[in-house]
Amino acid sequence: MKRILLPTDFSDNAFKAITYALRVFENMECTFYLFHTYNPPVYEVEYLLLHPSDFGLGDEYLENSQTKLIELQRSLEEQFKNPKHKFLIHTAFNSFLNEVLDTVENESIDYVVMGTKGATGAREILLGTNTVHVIKRVMRPVIAVPPNYEYEAPKEILFPTDYEIEYPKGKFEPLLEIAEQHRSRINVMHVSTGYELTKNQKEHQQSLKKLLGSTALFHDLPSDDVIHAINTFHTQENINLLVMVQNKHTFFERLFIEPVIKKIGFHITLPFMVIPHL
Question: At 142, is the secondary structure helix, strand, or coil?
Answer without folding.
Answer: strand
